[in-house]
């Protein structure tokens, strides 16, 4: 059957931490941090993605380094639009003249009509011929090859940098769900607050993230320590301390238990016939924070069902969007209406 999408059409995952672009027939060709550096004197974008990330926390007053997406929602329309336009121009190696792609993108489950309209408008403004929206957990489930079209339950927890969404899916639709304004960045801020309160030391965001990645774990099996540098809040001078993995675990365990409670509530709201599927088939976790060491074991202990880690957790959503792009005729039922439809 004819697929209406052409070779210039794209899927875009506009995430809190990273923006990924999938080109039909080619795969994921762009994966950049969702961050922009702007010279406020000239109003010119001077860096996007990795190059802008290197400037974060190190720029002079006239260089504004900003993240236009927060918890999966557009918080700065103009900058987000300029960023997407720039990335698409780089992708097509043109100023976009004559190229009007169809664009598939995703929205959070608890998005408001105003927030959804903002995302749609960005896609129209960058030159989209047609815009298609898919709910984020649906895209992640497709990317994890879950049988979402079948009359059985697929339970997925999609963990992003600023958003965690829990969904039970059956027959291409969401049966029960929870959406939390919590993600990998929330763990970073928990670490920053803990170090400040216990040691009187102020850490940068990237240092806290480095701590989480290197010694963070939901289950601290063996003692590990790491040295970190920050600013002493009393003297204002640089200071170095040692932090253990047990301390990091105690810092992040509270937020993780909040996710567990919301998973339980989601299952409680699910019809009994689908619950039996969940206990038999288990749950899939995806998203970058799903790679936290010990998380699978922690969730299995708390929820007492099988937990499966996605093959490429950080790519699940963009892979799912890409699969819809490639096989639209078979998967078009997952597309949700635009605000003006």
What would your notes on this structure say?
With 341 residues, this protein is an alpha+beta fold. The chain has 3 domains: 10-139 and 317-336, ATPase, nucleotide binding domain (Nucleotidyltransferase, domain 5); 146-182 and 253-310, ATPase, nucleotide binding domain (Nucleotidyltransferase, domain 5, 2-Layer Sandwich), CATH 3.30.420.40; 184-251, Actin, Chain A, domain 4. Helix content is 37%, strand content 28%. The chain is built from 11 helices and 19 strands. The protein has helices at 50-53, 77-92, 113-125, 136-143, 184-199, 205-215, 245-268, 272-281, 295-303, 316-326, 328-331; strands at 10-14, 18-23, 27-33, 36-39, 44-48, 63-66, 69-70, 73-74, 102-107, 130-135, 154-159, 164-170, 173-180, 201-202, 225-232, 238-244, 283-286, 307-309, 335-336. The strands form 5 sheets. It has a 6-stranded mixed β-sheet with strand order 3-2-1-9-10-19, with helices on both faces. The chain has a 5-stranded mixed β-sheet with strand order 13-12-11-17-18. It has a 3-stranded antiparallel β-sheet with strand order 5-4-6. A hairpin with a 5-residue loop joins strand 15 (225-232) and strand 16. Helix 4 (136-143) packs across helix 10, helix 5 packs across helix 6 (205-215) and helix 5 (184-199) crosses helix 7. The two termini are 26 Å apart.
